[in-house]
Amino acid sequence: MKQSKPGSQTARRIIAVGSGKGGVGASMIATNLAIFMGQIGKRVALIDANLASPGLHAWLGADRPARTIGDLLYERVDNIEDALVETRVSGLFLLAGVSDLMSGTSLDEKRIDRLIAAIRSLEADYVLVDLPSGANPLAINLLSSADLSIIVTVGTPDSVEATFRLMATVFLHRLLSHPQVDPVTREVLEEMGCRAGLPPNPREIVARLTELESPLSEAAQELSTTFHPNLIVNQTRIKADEYLGEAMISASVRWIGLMPRLLGSVGWDDNVWLALRRNLPLLIEFPRSRACKDLERIVRKLLSQEFKDLFSAKIIPPVTENQNLYELLEIYPGASEEEVRRALKQIKEWFGPDGLAGQGSCTVAQREDYQKRAEEAHAELLDRSKRRQYDRSNFPDGFAAAREHRDQERDSIAGTVAATHDSLPEVVLSDDQFVDGVFLGEVRRERNVELTDISNRAKISISYLKAIEEERFEDLPAAVFVRGFVTEFARFLKINPGRAVTDFMAKYEAFAHKNGK
Predict the structure, then answer these.
(1) H/E segment holding residue 80
(2) Following CA atoms 333, 233, 259, 450 in sequence, which dihedral angle do they give, to the nearest 10 degrees?
(3) How far is CA 82 from CA 2, 72, 95, 107, 111, in A?
């Protein structure tokens, strides 16, 4: 039976996928996220709004449709659904990119508003929009108005810098769209100009508006705590690439004044090129490839309960010069000496001469000043006498009260050095959170816990821990052993072990039943 196209009701969630510069794989990611969602039963519309270089139909392994987004923009069709076409993936529909050069690559405000209104009219669980790269007006408007904004980057200096520039530009656009903006405030923001090629960042904007006692200062402060662009690091090759997202979030919070969220990374995979070369979707041609597994983790994270609070306020920590010793090192109060050492090592890797996270987020002087302060904090916290005196002076009510206050006020800075088992806070699970292998892996990575740490403490082979995270049930031993492994895994991360065992074993036993194991 032929499926009906998405029609007239409001979309459940619009996801805009953009990038600071071209060539980072945003179109590949947008397409395969849409395919994944379609395969798990979601109704999805995929929009090719990359007017300069449209090509989502190629990533889907399809010919260019006769009707495209140009027909909608230039009113050659009445409704967006008239330009949508079915794809080989059940539940997934495509609005292809423009096919004629006369349509142009830039749009006036009227056509941008028409496109956004048309997208919001679609009846679908998710609408994914692939955007032009850089600070294109269409990209800025859609990243500003989407329910969820994703920015794709890669591990190169120009891409990292362009990502920070794009985040700051979207923030500024959203702020200038606020109804309280008056001509004087607009002039002030324009006069702030660019710093080292970047638009004024949220920290600078909030400080300047507060200084001027502008009525917009409160709105700017609120926006800085609620605007959370989501990052995906694509084409990761080396270990430093794997941690680039966390490093960029740390830099963004510290110097830019925004708290992005890391959706994950996608490893370098020649199968991506090969699938495109064969004119077949990556997920269909190479479903077990590294890139597909990484993309699946991202989709599951997007759909998980932890993203229900995407727009909840997260208080930005104070500027570097006003932070305490633990905030400087991005660790919990009461962290062990080993954690203190690991923290400084991580800061040097992230923000040293070879680190990429400082590109475009701060000046060289700011980066060097931070490293100096971190080294001083490291030295004082490793001096037991000085540390006892410092803790008594700054945490008179103890560390438990400090952690409780921190958890109520803001998330810890991304990239926080993982606390040991004894100092990790408990994970609070919602009633409908499913604690499977993927969730255990996400919690471990978010807390920067190494598998070797769990293995050494619980005496479980790393290969079994990896199999649990990746849900490779065929590589796990008998159920009686798996229950014990999952119990110890969850206990280390301070996750309710009973919930973990119940949820994980449900999947394990379903696999065993299906395969006669």
Answers:
(1) none
(2) -10
(3) 15, 9, 9, 21, 17
Residues 473/507, Cβ–Cβ less than 8 Å: yes
Alpha helices in 330-450 (DSSP H): 337-351, 364-382, 384-394, 399-409, 437-446
Q: Return phi, psi of residue 144, to 5°.
A: -75, -35
Q: Do 314 and 396 meet the contact criterion of CB atoms below 8 Å apart?
A: no
Mean pLDDT throughout 270-298?
A: 92
Output DSSP code: residue 242: H
User: Cα separations (Å) of 402 from 250, 326, 327, 494?
Assistant: 21, 11, 12, 19
* CB proximity list for 379: less than 8 A, separation 6 or greater: none
Supply the pLDDT for residue 423: 54
Instruction: Please give the Cα distance from 404 to 332 (Å, whole number).
Output: 11
- Computed over every residue of the chain, the mean pLDDT equals 86
pLDDT in tens, 462-494: 888 999 999 999 989 888 889 989 999 999 999
Structure tokens at 190: 């324009």
- Three-state DSSP state, 155: coil
- State the Cα–Cα distance between residues 144 and 159, nearest whole angstrom: 20
**With 90 as the cut, is the pLDDT of residue 311 above it?**
no
Which tokens go with 436?
Answer: 């499977």
Rounded-to-integer distance, Cα 307 and Cα 15, Å? 13
Answer whether 377's CB lies under 8 Å from 383's CB: no
DSSP, collapsed to helix, strand or coil, labels residue 186 as helix
pLDDT tens digits, residue range 226-237? 999 999 999 999
Residue with tokens 């077990």: 288
Cα 364 from Cα 105, distance rounded (Å): 36
What is the 3-state composition of the chain as percent helix, strand, coil, each rounded to the nearest 5?
Answer: 55, 10, 40
Residue type, 109: E
- The answer to whether the CB of 382 falls within 8 A of the CB of 338 is no
Q: 149: which DSSP letter?
A: E
Contacts of 383 (CB under 8 A, 6+ apart): none
* Contact criterion met (CB below 8 Å) for 235 and 268: yes
Amino acid at 157: P
